[in-house]
Amino acid sequence: MKIVNKKGVRILAVVIAAGFFTSSTLASAPAAKKDFNIWWYSKDNTPTGQTWAVALKEFKKAHPELNVKFQLKTFEVMNNTGAQILNSNAAPDVTEYNKGNGTAGLASKAGLLTDLTPYSKKYNWNLPSSVSLYGKYKKGLMGTGKLYGVPSYGEYVSVFYNKDLFAANGVKIPKTMAELEAAMAKFKAAGVTPLTMGGGGYQVVHNVYALAVSRANQAWINSFQLFKGKPIDASTDANIKWAASKLVSWQKAGYLPDNVSGVKVDEEAVPLFQSGKAAMMIAGSWLDGDNQTKVTTFKYGKFPVPGKLSVGSAGNLFVIPAKSKNKDLAAEFINLVLSKKYQNYLGNAGGLPLFADATAIANPAAILTATPFTQIVKKNALAMYPDWPVPGYYDILLSAGTALLSSGDVDAYMKTTGNFYNSGRPKA
């Protein structure tokens, strides 16, 4: 009779059972979800950031098979390293991206962006030329060519003003540059900071350009931005030099914060206005949502910078990187934010939608945001943004602008910024 080792039998049984359990577990395990990576840099307290977040929730619900991974980036990161990111394996499936020759133009020329023309036809986007021109690039130049990006909102730079301080000091909304300076002088005499500004950040870039285009015309914009018509010598241009000189004169007159060259925008300049300690702030509509939340002790309004043209355009772009692994899904999300549902949502959140139903917008804050923009658009006075024309121009404008406020040397500013622009401008 063969003797069987009971211990061995038990071990064998355990091994067989373990193998059966493992096989059953593997067979019934759910398939891994596919990653979908989406980035933007519009903050949660902005109308655009709020709107896109709600749209993303709907997108997630419609695609339970996806592992949606969202990352909040910053303007600075995408402006400085966006091309390197898009050219790497870390590129997202869809992202907000800066418009202009130096950013989206450079990326499209390098083959880093997907042509969205087929998706535009599929979803019947019907983008008007005044909107699509910011997403179209040919050989890296904005305005014509293939559609590489789509904006879903508008933005502009105007003057935020403290209504209470204006009323207390008998100041009316300035209609001319002379009236604006007279108002600042009156506030200065009353011990109020006339105009808050972050000279250590993007406001100095926008403010110099805002002054320059207040004297310019569309022919100048076409030449400076789109390289059409007579070339501009930016090292000697009268509009830019006048703007740089005017900003220095405001500093010397005490109209700007003390040590303005070192003032940070979001951490110091904007809170100064929101606290009620500054009468005015030349800033972008992307601060509307933040001001609606944080301005609680006074009433404020907005008016265009006095002059001919104003800084502004359709907003930044949603683009699909060439290395996106989910291009169709990315286009589906873009189509969602362009839909009437989310364009109307954006308007009621206080943003500037491009395709909303006017009758669907009831938020008073949205009306405050839209009124100056409507005035500017009616005059055909949008002047784009200063850093668009040539790659790397933003960093030069920022460093030179900070140095301008620190030294007061207008000639040095013109030489630094002008030579960089002139060398980067396409040769005929």
- What is the second-level CATH architecture of the largest domain? 3-Layer(aba) Sandwich
Summing up helix and strand content along with how strands pair, one would put the structural category as alpha+beta
Number of helices: 18
The count of strands amounts to 13
Shape: globular
- Indicate the CATH topology of the largest domain: D-Maltodextrin-Binding Protein, domain 2
How would you write the strand order of the largest sheet? 2-1-3-13-7
**Biggest sheet details:** 5 strands, mixed
Proportion of residues in helical segments: 40-55%
Roughly how many Å apart are the termini?
103 Å
Overall mean pLDDT stands at 90
Task: Detail the poorly predicted runs.
Answer: 1-27
The CATH class of the largest domain, by name, is: Alpha Beta
Rg (C-alpha, Å): 27 Å
Number of domains: 2
Task: Identify the notable features of this structure and list them briefly.
single chain, 428 residues, alpha+beta, D-Maltodextrin-Binding Protein, domain 2, 2 domains, 5-stranded mixed β-sheet, 13 strands, 49% helix, disordered N terminus
Describe, in plain words, how this protein is organized in 3D.
- The protein is globular, with a radius of gyration of 27 Å.
- It is of the alpha+beta class and 428 residues long.
- Strands 2-1-3-13-7 form a five-stranded mixed beta sheet. Strands 8, 9, 10, 11 and 12 form a five-stranded mixed beta sheet that branches.
- The chain contains 18 helices and 13 strands.
- It folds into two domains: 35-153 and 314-374, 3-Layer(aba) Sandwich (D-Maltodextrin-Binding Protein, domain 2); 154-313 and 383-424, D-Maltodextrin-Binding Protein, domain 2, CATH 3.40.190.
- It has helices spanning 6-28, 47-62, 75-86, 101-109, 117-123, 129-132, 163-168, 177-189, 202-213, 218-226, 238-252, 265-274, 288-294, 327-338, 340-348, 364-378, 393-407, 410-424, and strands spanning 34-40, 66-72, 94-97, 136-138, 141-142, 146-147, 150-151, 154-162, 193-196, 278-284, 300-303, 312-314, 317-319.
- Mean pLDDT is 90; it is low at 1-27.
- Helix content is 49%, strand content 13%.
